[in-house]
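## Example pair
The file below holds two records. Each record gives the amino-acid sequence first, followed by its structure token line.
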Amino acid sequence: MSGPETVTSTAVPFRPGVLELEGNGGGRLIGSRCPACGAHFFPAREVCPGCLEQDMERVPLSGQGSLYTYTVVRQSAPGFPVPYLLGYVDLPEGVRVLGQLAGLSQDEARIGMALALTVQPVGTDEEGREIIGYSFRPSAEGDRDD
């Protein structure tokens, strides 16, 4: 049976502390929030660069955002087929996240378009567990800059 790839319970994020995997095959980016000034960061920080608060909170970030800008990658490291789109996505928390844009071509990409976080296997580790990464795909929510 063919279909979307699913995340198994033995899967691990590509980098600890960046991605929290959910049992339903989904996931969320994990950032930090400053309890003193309310600023959010991704990846998570230990100290707020704005107010120097050291008691930062780990928080899940929104899975929806809008495309700030993007580029077409035409030359890459071995194992990464080219071309692919790489973009910065603005999340509602005020965080700008860099990620691969999937499910759209260069002609379809437009600044301000709504995107949704997706997680998918990107390889396996030395123990045979799936390594899970993230990308952003077009969202049904429409444009965010209207």
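Second record, same layout:
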Amino acid sequence: MKKKILIIITIIIAIIIIGIGYFIVQDFKQEEKLKNELEETSNIVNVENNNNNTVNKSFGSYEVPENWVESKEHSTNSKFFYVLEGQEQEAQPNNISINSGTNKYAETEHEKFKTAILNQLSMQIAGKEDIEIKANGSDTNNGYIVYTFIIKETTDNITTTQYYIVGDYKYILIHETVFGESEETDDVAKSIVDSFKWKD
């Protein structure tokens, strides 16, 4: 009788130990799974953060995608051109240029600045029927006022978009030129506009 009781107790203890072991293994597997998922998420975030290069110039900083490069051939000490990597030697690559300038308007007079630019553009295209101009204003992601002027040459299918980020008696011009259509160039230009920060 005692022998049977001992066998039953031994079996019960063995079942309990196996059960505990099973749950420990399951917990360990779950922890490993969560750890791997966190590492994967972290890697994705790191890749996303590394998709852009921060460029520092005397007037400020901005981010440019890694697959876009500065065209040293066309850039000067005050104006910097960017093209899609591999298109540096093309005759007419889609491109984005960036330069700074000064004006006679305080930041609070930004509407006067917009009117002055619009008048200047209107004079430049006077008498040309194949050119359309659209203008709008908004804020960048960093809270700066930006005026956008889109000039479309319908005959040659060339679109130039001028983004003027307005400061106090100064501005940044991000000038996008697209031959035909290019959503990528549009997105890169907007990304540069939104990431721009004036130098303190």
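Notes on the second record: DSSP finds three helices and ten strands in the chain. The chain has two domains: 1-50, 53-198.
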